[in-house]
Amino acid sequence: MAGSHDHVEEALPPGKSFADRVYLPAVMRGLKLTVQKFFGTVTDKHATVQYPEVGIYDASEAERAIGHPNPRYRGEHILVKDEQGREKCVACLLCMAACPALCIHIEPEPTPPEWGDRERRPKVFEIDMLRCIYCGYCEEACPCDAIRLTPKFYTPTTSRTERVYDKERLLENNPAAQIPQRPAK
After folding, report:
1. What is d(CA 86, CA 107) in angstroms, rounded to the nearest whole number?
2. Cα separation, 93 vs 31, whole angstroms
3. At the topology level of CATH, where does 77-178 sit?
């Protein structure tokens, strides 16, 4: 038996066969996935939402769980109002300092004498939404819960100037998100 040669073919290790070296299995899997997705979107009428013509909050999209964004989603900004309907912002400029994109511009002014709870308010409060990276640092830096990122999706616009939100637009942007999140101090 010492003279018999049992020849057992050894399998090539992964990546050493000709097919693996020219990436044929990977290319075929990729093509298969691409074809499946392509024909899936052609045959399925619910593959996409024609936003902004059809909003994601429309009742017709309810069966697709559209209209229920991720709770961690960061959408358009708002300036929060206090109980008297005034902006809560005290113009401390912390959000402007925390913004890595430098898209927030605030010019403070003294408050009217009848406002006894703060010294300053923003005369100008602008956010350039084209520069904003929606990181949420402004929301975290604000000591009085005056600025928030809401689950509202971006509003389509036709010009660059429409993407610079001023104080009035930020105060009226998403009324449903005006509910208090932090207790009054």
Report:
1. 17
2. 52
3. Alpha-Beta Plaits (3.30.70)
Distance CA 55, CA 61 (A): 8
For 100-136, write each residue's pLDDT tens digit: 999 999 999 999 999 888 999 999 999 999 999 999 9
Q: Which amino acid is at 179?
A: I
pTM over 0.90: no
Helix (DSSP H) and strand (DSSP E) numbers for the chain: 5, 5
Let me know: does 122 contact 89? Beta carbons within 8 Å. Answer: yes
Every domain of the chain and the residues it spans: 18-64, 77-178
Considering only CA atoms, which of 125, 80, 96, 90 is closest in space to residue 111? 90
Query: Do the Cβ atoms of 76 and 149 come closer than 8 Å?
Result: yes
